[in-house]
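so my prof wants the structure for this chain in the tokens format not the other one, which i didnt know existed until like an hour ago. anyway here's the sequence
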Amino acid sequence: MPCAASSTRGGKELSVRRECLAAPVFDLVDRRARRLAIESRETMDHFDRSCIAGTLRKSSESLSYAHLRPHEEPALWLPDALAWTYGAGGDWRRRVQPIIELTRNFGVVA
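here's what i got, hopefully its the right format
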């Protein structure tokens, strides 16, 4: 699932990133997924691991997850493409809408 959260304001960025990670982890656990591949952001990977582990503790379930670079897992390209297309709006959003199952708004990081 795509998640974009970038800002120089660490507190808000981390809060949005936590929400962006927790929601799909709960969804994947509900769907009995076995593995989650997350694009590595190197400096944020430690935060992601902590957030995912905390979310999994709340659900009492397990889920294998790994941070990878796009060249290691080409399936990571699709969420970026979908997020860009949906975010571009207009005709781009109209074209991609039929394959979008769910969107969530976590607010704006400014």
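also thought this was worth mentioning. The two ends are 21 Å apart (CA to CA).
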